[in-house]
Write a structure and sequence with these properties.
mainly alpha
Length: 363
C-alpha cells in the first residue's frame, strides 16, 4: 500500500518519461545486439549485402534469358558468368596496359620525383635538402610501421576469398530462386501483417535496384569522361585510371577525390605541371556535371535522400567497416528509408477497428 501510494505521488509526466526511456533503452539494446552479431560475422554480412547488390545489377540478364525460355539454372548462370566476364575482362585489359607501359612510367616517375624535389628545394618555400630527406625517411618508416604483418595479410586475404565465394554462391541462388525465397519468408510472417511486409519488402527492393542501376550509369559516365580526357592529354595508364574512376564512383564524395588525385598525380609525374592542370580541370568538369546533372536526374527521384544524410551515412559506414562500409552505406540507408516509409504509410492507412472487421467477414 505504501509503495502504491508513493507511486501515485510521482507526477504523471515523470511516469510517462520513465516509460518512454525504458522503451528506448530496450530498442537500443535490441539494435546493439543485432549490430554486434552482424559484426561478429562481418565476412558473411558483407557477402550477403554484396550478393543483394549484384543480384540487383545482373537480374535483367537472368530475366532476359528466362524470357527466351531458358531454364532457371541457366538464366542464373548466365547472369553470374556475365558479371565474372566483365570483371575479368576489365582487369585483364588494365593489367595488360600496366605491363606494357610500366617501364616508361618508372622512368617518368623517377624524373617527376627529381623535378618535384628540385622545385621544393630551389623554390620559394624555406625547405632545405636535408629537411626534405628527413621528411621522406620519416614517411617511409611510418608507412612500414603501419603496414600489416604477413600473417595478418594472409588472414585478411583468406577471409576476402571466402567472402567472394559465398557471394557468388548466394548470387547464383538469388537469381535462380529469389521469388521462392521471398515467398518462404512471407510464409513466416503472420497472415495479418503479410500484405504490408510484402509491400515494404518490394518497395525496398525497387529502391535497391534503382540505386544500383543509377550508380552504375553515373560511374560509367564519370569513367568515360575522365578516360577520354586522359587519352586526349596523353596520360599513361589511361585504362587503369578509367577503371579506378568507375570503381571509385561507388563511394559517394570520397571516391571522386581519390580517383581524381590519382589521375592528377600520374599526369604530373609523366607530363609535368601542364598535364596535371589539364587533368585536374577535366576531373572538376566531369564531377560538376555529375553533381548538377546526373545525380539529380538519375538518383534524385529514386532515392530522395538529402546530401547531408548521404555524407553522414558514408562517414558512419567507413568508420564501422572501412571502404566496404562506405560502399554499402548509402544503399542500406536508402532501402531502410523506403521500407520505413511504406510501413509507416501502411500503419496510417490501417482500419482502426480490425477486430470488428474480422468479426463480420460478410460485410
Amino acid at each position: 500500500m505504501t509503495i502504491r501510494r508513493g507511486f501515485d505521488a510521482v507526477p504523471s509526466a515523470l511516469r510517462s518519461a520513465a516509460a518512454v526511456a525504458a522503451c528506448l533503452l530496450l530498442v537500443a539494446g535490441a539494435v546493439w545486439l543485432v549490430v554486434y552479431i552482424l559484426f561478429k560475422v562481418m565476412a558473411l554480412t558483407m557477402a550477403v549485402i554484396a550478393a543483394l547488390l549484384l543480384t540487383a545489377l545482373v537480374a535483367p540478364v537472368a530475366r532476359l534469358m528466362r524470357r527466351l525460355r531458358a531454364p532457371a539454372w541457366a538464366a542464373a548462370l548466365s547472369g553470374l558468368l556475365t558479371l565474372l566476364l566483365a570483371v575479368a575482362g576489365s582487369v585483364a585489359l588494365a593489367g595488360d596496359q600496366v605491363a606494357g607501359q610500366w617501364r616508361k612510367m618508372s622512368h617518368g616517375l623517377t624524373d617527376g620525383l627529381r623535378r618535384a624535389r628540385e622545385q621544393l628545394v630551389e623554390g620559394p618555400l624555406p625547405i632545405s635538402e636535408r629537411q626534405l630527406d628527413n621528411t621522406v625517411d620519416g614517411l617511409i618508416k611510418a608507412a612500414r610501421r603501419a603496414s600489416p604483418d604477413p600473417m595478418t595479410s594472409a588472414s585478411v586475404a583468406a577471409e576476402a576469398a571466402a567472402a567472394a565465394l559465398i557471394t557468388m554462391f548466394l548470387l547464383f541462388f538469388m537469381l535462380k530462386d529469389g521469388v521462392r525465397m521471398w515467398g518462404w519468408i512471407m510464409r513466416l510472417v503472420p497472415a495479418r501483417h503479410r500484405p504490408k511486409i510484402d509491400a515494404a519488402g518490394r518497395a525496398g527492393w525497387r529502391a535497391l535496384v534503382s540505386y544500383v542501376h543509377g550508380i552504375v550509369l553515373i560511374a560509367a559516365a564519370d569513367a568515360l569522361g575522365i578516360g577520354l580526357a586522359l587519352v586526349l592529354i596523353g596520360v599513361p595508364f589511361a585504362l587503369p585510371l578509367t577503371l579506378l574512376t568507375f570503381i571509385a564512383a561507388f563511394i559517394p564524395f570520397a571516391g571522386a577525390v581519390i580517383a581524381g588525385a590519382a589521375a592528377v598525380l600520374i599526369a604530373f609525374v609523366s607530363g609535368g605541371l601542364t598535364d596535371a592542370l589539364l587533368v585536374l580541370g577535366a576531373v572538376i568538369a566531369v564531377q560538376q556535371a555529375e553533381s548538377h546533372l546526373l545525380q539529380p536526374l538519375i538518383m534524385g527521384r529514386s532515392l530522395n535522400l538529402h546530401p547531408v544524410v548521404v555524407v553522414v551515412s558514408v562517414a558512419a559506414g567507413s568508420l564501422l567497416a572501412g571502404v566496404a562500409g562506405a560502399v554499402i552505406a548509402v544503399p542500406v540507408v536508402a532501402v531502410g528509408y523506403r521500407v520505413a516509409s511504406v510501413l509507416s504509410a501502411a500503419s496510417d492507412d490501417e482500419d482502426p477497428a480490425p477486430a470488428a472487421s474480422a468479426a463480420a467477414p460478410d460485410t
